[in-house]
Amino acid sequence: MRILDLAYILGLGASLGLVSAHWAVAGRPLVGKVEVGSWMAWPGSGGRDVDPYMRAYLARGVHLPLGAGEGLELIAERSDDGAPLDGRCRYRLTGTVPTTRGWTIEITDRAGRPFQLPLERASFTDSEIVRGEDGKLSVIAAAAPQAGNWLPLPAGGRFQFRLRLYDTPVSSQTGETRAANLPQIARIDCR
Known about the structure:
Elements: H1 2-26, E1 34-36, E2 39-41, H2 52-59, E3 71-76, E4 89-95, E5 102-108, E6 123-125, E7 137-142, E8 149-152, E9 160-166, E10 184-190
Parallel strand pairs: 7-8
Antiparallel strand pairs: 1-2, 2-3, 3-9, 4-7, 4-10, 5-6, 5-9
């Protein structure tokens, strides 16, 4: 009887350990996460002192982070009103981008992989975008073609905006950045 109890306890302990370890590294960890408005960042993910949870996440080969001096990646999964981003809706990204040598904005699935869209365009760079007279950016993200700076979305399902800032002082001061200094994500309508 004692051997069965011991086997049961060891099996249960091993199972719980494996499940909790998988849960801890399956997605980006909460440790080291900084939220600025709708945007999230992990500024320490590319440095020497990366925490063990981020190190385990990166060891899975999912993403290659920007180095501490190279820049910062910001991810948005929700619009400014708190609703999850959905391909059936139209979104407008407006405002400014922090001081940086260059930037890109991209549409990806929830795992960070680019979509295979018919137009094969899922991103803009700072040199491709057409700005208004005030110098601010204005991008429309929608499944159907739109006038102006248009990012195509998948016909449905969840997605992310990924804003990468290259060679920027914001990478070391993410916690001090204000939401007004990042693009605003407004949901226009949904079909």
